[in-house]
């Protein structure tokens, strides 16, 4: 394995806890200062009133011959808010910061559905899909509904509001259109009640590009805060979505059902590989190693030491442990994630990763450095808390 130093990843306490009905004035929401994780984003969501900032893209997903069937998944770590709008140029600059894998802009505002205040975000569905939990990203019907101009809520909010799929409801913002309820989904943003597509967001007057989600799983959060503030300025409010804990004191998620068919995204690939090839090992360990080693295939090498592929195997190690999986045939391909991730699971399992007691030593066998063990376990805990 390669030796690659980076900032120690924190442990996710991912919760955009938006308290329904508690938006605040823009003057309060734009006061300077870094916001701690316990501060809810409810204090940053304004009433729907429109805006003028241009749309901004996320960092493009890298597509290679080996990964065309795998959808990238982003793990949000920082929420940045500027009610004057985050420009496309600013979002691009954030996306190029050290350790940042991607950044996506969000519209936001409090609207009324069935007469009740609902904290709502506006997104480009095709881009936002990769930022949601895998089980939500796989709900093709939900994304089709957003593309049709319908709205989607969390299951809890749909129950509270008495919503029925396929029925139209008045949604009140800058305008008051009747909008079809497209269904429910877990958004992965605790407290965010509803999501709409870009066109409906404009119609309702949600504040355009009022915030950005930033994915930087390997970043030191203090350094990331400073770097993002350097791009956005003093008016920006930052909510860290990570908090420091002792990763080894928390139990990592293990088990579950194998995905039907071939995994379609990296997290499902990590899950299935752990369940099939190393029962007892948490899939989050594979996810952490895949992120640290290559950014889930964004940097396949060769490294300075000669390691290759999304899991960065040395050729000699691959010659012993490389295997075909998920229907692949022929010689195992170190560059193919469908071979490399299961091979990493087998290698780790042989080193003791199937038991919590020997997991640290198994990770050490993968890369002989204690800092690496600490970083993998911390990032594994972050994945577990967010997607477990």
Characterize the structure shown.
- This protein is an alpha+beta fold.
- Helices cover 32% and strands 16% of the residues.
- It has helices spanning 26-29, 88-95, 125-128, 134-137, 140-147, 155-161, 198-204, 221-232, 266-277, 283-294, 315-321, 337-350, 359-366, 370-387, and strands spanning 11-12, 34-35, 78-81, 102-113, 116-123, 151-153, 168-172, 178-184, 194-197, 207-215, 237-240, 242-243.
- A hairpin with a 2-residue loop joins strand 4 and strand 5.
- Helix 9 (266-277) packs across helix 10 (283-294) and helix 9 crosses helix 12 (337-350).
- The radius of gyration is 21 Å and the shape is globular.
Features:
two-stranded antiparallel sheet; 388 residues; 12 strands; 14 helices; single chain; disordered N terminus; alpha+beta
Strands, total number: 12
Element string (H = helix, E = strand):
EHEEHEEHHHEHEEEHEHEEHHHHHH
> How many DSSP helices?
14
Please give the alpha-carbon distance between the first and last residues: 27 Å
Structural class: alpha+beta
Low-confidence stretches: 1-44, 50-68, 243-249
The backbone outline, from C-alpha atoms, is globular
Give a quick account of the main beta sheet: strands, pairing sense, barrel closure: 6 strands, mixed, barrel
Question: Helical residue percent?
Answer: 25-40%
Can you list the strand order of the major beta sheet?
Answer: 4-5-9-6-8-7
Average pLDDT metric = 76
Radius of gyration: 21 Å
**DSSP strand content:** 15-25%
